[in-house]
Amino acid sequence: MTRALGVDLGEKRIGIALSDPTRTIASPHSVIKRSGNVDVDRRAVLNIAREEGATQLVVGLPLTLTGARRAAARAALAEVEALKDLAPDLIVEAFDERLTTAIAQRSLLEGDVRRKDRKQVIDKVAAAVMLQSWLDGQR
Q: What superfamily in CATH does domain 3-138 come from?
């Protein structure tokens, strides 16, 4: 098997998570600070995918609690299509990321991670929570 890359798209930062080669465990990887240029940001995500040997991107789809798609979800779906166009060799799909940030936040609070430090890692931890949920659903 090959690795999968989880992508949590935020307005200011993009959280990245990576699966192990057996696609059993997701781990936080990195946070990309938004550059203000979507093409630069997309290339940064794709560069990480290629450097890590990922063949699949799983992009978080921020649905409402009722499952509705609002502006952020439509933007995420547009990013999925743009990434597919830029990297036809990769499998790119959207996956429901409801409550992943809340779960990540709770996990960091329970781990006594300081507020300043939480802000630095929350996006990649949320990406890992989302990717782990996707991995679990693949079994």
A: YqgF/RNase H-like domain (3.30.420.140)
